[in-house]
Structure to design on (1002 residues):
């Protein structure tokens, strides 16, 4: 099966979610695949894609593509697909991927497997698992009768595997000029450098059990080790230990990350209402009766002042391997 | 009778006195009729609301609260001077009428003979009593200055006018008594006699002059006073009695049920959306501030002050009056005056979302204005149903209630999990075999950890008493209290209809629930949806079983305890004694009342959907309440509502207080003799 993978970059830096899609394509096809990389000044980044499975990279490098434009980016994908004639196109299910995939699919009259968590090949068909009803159930789907098959892969689900291989062949795409009907005027990034809990895939939260705001560094350490966002229970927000933007729960943010680590949070129903649908919940609490253990996938009864630093150390050690 | 003594018998400013006086009276009547017509026409343009039913009850309530002024005496001092002034006004209407007619028709006597003599005495006494009342009011305003009052110029002015009315009448009559002793039965007029005693010795011309001047001032004051009222907060002198007559007779805990299918506008966003009774509430407010000092949001520094809220509603009505009248008259082309928006202009959205619907303002108002709750919910309906503008955290609760039938959004299928290991059957399982009562568990009782323990306690108490009961299990869904009071009337009606259908399907007659919010809604708000049940709160049923000896409370709990009244149990439904009866029946437990208890109980801060919102403004209501509980220095505090339990529990942690909160039923369960629990159901 011939794959083409759409690669997304920000300021010349390829996003991890696209590398995951690329690795997945190589694994499924059993060899190098094609990739398309639109943007401005991205040619350098294209070379590195070889390590993740790109045998050929179609680069659309122009000023018009400096900022995201759905016509421009879909046009690049379309042009690459015309040259490559793939059987399957993969994109990461990011905001951009979710915008590009349906537009491209509509142009080609193809089906899209959206936000998939598992993908395999059966005969000449792509078959995917995707979550439905807020993750309460999974559906097995394929693209039906369409010959071109498109899938968007959920970030942080598939591994991005680097290998030492030869540099990919770079092919520059010459795109006809377009008069965009909609264009991005500017990109504004939020003031805070802090990862927002409602967008994070991993969250480390602290509750009353941390005893005081002076102990945030300990929680922060685990948060950084995991590359997570920092969450908090209502009690500590009310106590003024941390800003309301971190509050997870009924009256804070409702989140459903892949991993939620609750440190010293008893798990009042108001808190559970905000994070109960997380995929994996790890609870650290000294009270074995704490209700958080009823929803936890993994629970450790113990002193968080010992457990959290140990866990951070173990995470770092595992990541170093 | 000495005709010549009436000042209008001579000439005034070169014109016959009677003509001048007649013109003055005519002008006063015309202006008064004009003012009142405008005020009433605006009411007629308000939204309809039937307040002409149950006339007998209304008359009785009017006697009780308007004439006997039962609620006024909660502030004894104010009650005393108010009834003095009020009674004086009622009595002196006859005097005023008689003076006006006398001025137009010389020699006229309204009450001749013995009736006149008797009235002279009454009038004499009451004029003095009114002066005493005014003096008391002045002392209060000048020296005591209670915080509930705004010391406005308007109030001073009115007190001055009243004092002037009384003083001028007494002095005029005193002078007249000296000039023509036969014209007044002095034996019946001690006060006038006293004044006459002071005036005796003045030359006749001076006395005549004094009499004339006082008579004219008195009548001018009278005519001006009547015309000043419709433009002052003292309009209440005219509209309080009708406002009490038209009071809400439906249960306090029943909000209006709009027909959503056939409505094109939802809730209140403009003055014209207010019902005529809501506008009359505004007219009636005399800014006494009794609501202000009891309101949990006002006392914790939030923007909602019910006294200001109602004055703003009134001022909005006044501002809108010209444009409403132009629109109503149908005069095309007439310029419609610009005005401030009701919501966002007169009343901020923060004010609207602050209310806990505790109802304290409503029960505090002596003239039965519903200062906040019903009107605020109407405004929330507009914000939610029309504009979808509400604190964003409410969305979580709305969605939870919509999809899973509970505000936390926990799976509906796990609603009965709390009872898995208990001998509890569902109505579906009990089908065919009769049960005594349905136990309505509620969302908190089904899902919230602490409340689940209370549900368990009630199950064990009922079991011990040999009561056959069942639950709805997963067929139960949120009663809709929070949805309704947060303005999502659409969601409330869906939930209410669904629950009524389920309950009626099983032919349920009796319901017990331990959540005061479920209790109030099922008892008071389901009847308009065809749900009529005998609803008891858990503490009502258990206290009855205790008094009947079916539950024996024998294990001693050696603690001192105080009790926090839930608003929707106490204030809304008058259940004050049942929880106390249980606490008092437990051996060893020593009940001590809080300063603010029973009718005066302070809200925990969770009502009106505030449970599902962030409290960002002012100080925290639950901490204010907890502080009071801590100061009672008891070992424990009894509560009877799962929301109160959460709020009090949080405040306890936040304040690091040692006072432990217990649900009354948890304590009853602990104290219960362990006998028949196993044999139950």
């Amino acid at each position: 099966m011939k794959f083409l993978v759409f690669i997304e970059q920000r300021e010349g830096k390829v996003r991890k979610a696209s590398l995951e899609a690329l690795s997945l394509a190589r694994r499924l096809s059993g060899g190098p695949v094609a990739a398309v990389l639109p943007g401005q000044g991205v040619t350098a980044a294209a070379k590195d894609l070889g390590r993740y499975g790109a045998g050929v990279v179609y680069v659309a490098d122009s000023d018009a593509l400096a900022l995201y434009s759905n016509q421009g980016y879909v046009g690049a994908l379309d042009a690459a697909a015309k040259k490559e004639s793939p059987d399957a196109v993969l994109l990461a299910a990011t905001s951009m991927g979710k915008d590009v995939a349906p537009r491209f699919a509509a142009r080609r009259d193809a089906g899209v497997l959206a936000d998939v968590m598992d993908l395999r090949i059966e005969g000449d068909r792509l078959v995917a698992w995707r979550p439905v009803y807020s993750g309460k159930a999974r559906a097995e789907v394929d693209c039906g009768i369409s010959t071109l098959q498109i899938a968007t892969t959920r970030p942080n689900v598939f591994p991005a595997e680097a290998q030492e291989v030869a540099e990919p062949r770079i092919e520059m795409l010459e795109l006809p000029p377009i008069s965009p009907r909609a264009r991005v005027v500017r990109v504004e990034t939020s003031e805070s450098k802090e990862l927002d809990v409602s967008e994070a895939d991993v969250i480390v939260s602290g509750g009353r059990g941390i005893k005081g705001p002076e102990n945030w560094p300990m929680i922060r350490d685990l948060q950084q080790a995991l590359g997570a966002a920092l969450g908090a229970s209502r009690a500590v927000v009310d106590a003024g230990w941390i800003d309301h933007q971190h509050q997870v729960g009924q009256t804070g943010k409702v989140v459903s990350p892949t991993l939620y680590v609750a440190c010293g949070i008893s798990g009042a129903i108001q808190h559970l209402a905000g994070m109960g649908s997380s995929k994996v919940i790890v609870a650290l609490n000294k009270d074995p009766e704490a209700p958080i253990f009823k929803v936890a996938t993994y629970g450790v009864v113990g002193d968080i002042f010992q457990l959290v630093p140990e866990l951070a150390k173990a995470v770092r050690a595992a990541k170093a391997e | 009778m000495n005709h010549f003594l009436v000042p209008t018998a001579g000439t005034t400013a070169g014109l016959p006195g009677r003509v001048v006086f007649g013109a003055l009276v005519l002008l006063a009547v015309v202006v008064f009729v004009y003012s009142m017509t405008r005020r009433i026409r605006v009411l007629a343009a308000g939204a309809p609301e039937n307040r002409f039913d149950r006339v007998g009850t209304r008359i009785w309530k009017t006697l009780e609260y308007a004439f006997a002024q039962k609620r006024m005496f909660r502030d004894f001092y104010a009650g005393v001077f108010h009834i003095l002034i009020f009674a004086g006004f009622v009595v002196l209407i006859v005097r005023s009428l008689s003076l006006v007619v006398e001025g137009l028709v010389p020699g006229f006597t309204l009450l001749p003979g013995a009736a006149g003599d008797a009235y002279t005495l009454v009038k004499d006494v009451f004029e003095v009593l009114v002066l005493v009342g005014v003096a008391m009011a002045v002392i209060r305003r000048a020296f005591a200055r209670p915080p509930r009052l705004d010391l406005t110029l308007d109030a001073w002015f009115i007190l001055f006018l009243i004092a002037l009315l009384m003083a001028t009448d007494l002095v005029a009559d005193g002078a007249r008594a000296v000039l023509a002793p036969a014209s007044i039965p002095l034996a019946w007029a001690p006060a006038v006699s006293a004044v006459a005693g002071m005036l005796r010795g003045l030359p006749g011309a001076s006395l005549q002059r004094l009499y004339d001047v006082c008579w004219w001032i008195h009548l001018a004051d009278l005519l001006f006073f009547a015309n000043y009222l419709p433009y002052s907060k003292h309009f209440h002198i005219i509209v309080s009695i009708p406002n009490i007559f038209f009071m809400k007779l439906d249960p306090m805990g029943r909000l209006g049920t709009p027909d959503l299918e056939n409505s094109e506008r939802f809730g209140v966003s403009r003055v014209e959306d207010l019902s005529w009774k809501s506008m009359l509430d505004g007219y009636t407010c005399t800014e006494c501030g009794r609501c202000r000092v009891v309101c949990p949001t006002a006392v914790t520094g939030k923007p909602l002050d019910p006294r200001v809220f109602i004055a703003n509603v009134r001022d909005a009505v006044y501002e809108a009056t010209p444009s409403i009248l132009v629109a109503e008259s149908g005069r095309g082309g007439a310029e419609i005056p610009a005005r401030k928006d009701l919501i966002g202009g007169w009343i901020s959205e923060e004010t609207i979302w602050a209310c806990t619907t505790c109802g304290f303002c409503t029960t505090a108002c002596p003239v039965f204005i519903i200062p906040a709750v019903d009107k605020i919910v109407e405004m929330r309906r507009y914000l939610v149903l029309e504009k979808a503008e509400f604190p964003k955290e409410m969305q979580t609760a709305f969605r939870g209630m919509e999809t899973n039938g509970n505000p936390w959004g926990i799976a509906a299928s796990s609603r009965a999990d709390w009872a898995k290991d208990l001998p509890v059957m569902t109505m579906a399982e009990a089908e065919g075999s009769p049960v005594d009562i349905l136990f309505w568990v509620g969302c908190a009782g089904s899902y919230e950890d602490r409340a689940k323990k209370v549900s368990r306690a009630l199950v064990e108490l009922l079991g011990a008493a040999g009561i056959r009961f069942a639950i709805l299990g997963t067929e139960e869904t949120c009663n809709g209290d929070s949805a309704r009071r947060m303005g999502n009337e659409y969601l409330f009606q869906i939930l209410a209809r669904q629950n009524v259908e389920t309950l009626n399907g099983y032919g349920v007659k009796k319901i017990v629930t331990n959540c005061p919010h479920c209790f109030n809604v099922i008892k008071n708000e389901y009847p308009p949806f065809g749900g009529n049940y005998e609803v008891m709160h858990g503490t009502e049923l258990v206290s009855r079983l205790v008094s009947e000896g079916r539950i024996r409370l024998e294990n001693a709990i050696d603690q001192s305890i105080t009790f926090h009244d839930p608003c929707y149990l106490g204030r809304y439904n008058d259940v004050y004694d049942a929880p106390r009866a249980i606490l008092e029946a437990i051996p060893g437990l020593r009940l001590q009342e809080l300063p603010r208890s029973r009718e005066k109980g302070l809200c925990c801060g969770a009502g009106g959907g505030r449970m599902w919102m962030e409290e960002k403004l002012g100080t925290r209501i639950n901490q204010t309440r907890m502080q009071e509980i801590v100061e009672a220095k008891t070992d424990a505090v009894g509560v009877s509502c799962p929301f109160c339990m959460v709020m009090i529990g949080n405040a306890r942690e936040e304040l690091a207080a040692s006072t432990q909160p217990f649900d009354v039923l948890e304590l009853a369960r602990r104290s219960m003799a362990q006998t028949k629990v196993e044999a139950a159901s």
Remarks:
- The CA atoms of residues 63 and 611 of chain B lie 39 Å apart.
- Chain B is about 50% helix and 5% strand.
- Residues 676-681 of chain B have pLDDT under 50 and may be disordered.
- The two ends of chain B are 89 Å apart (CA to CA).
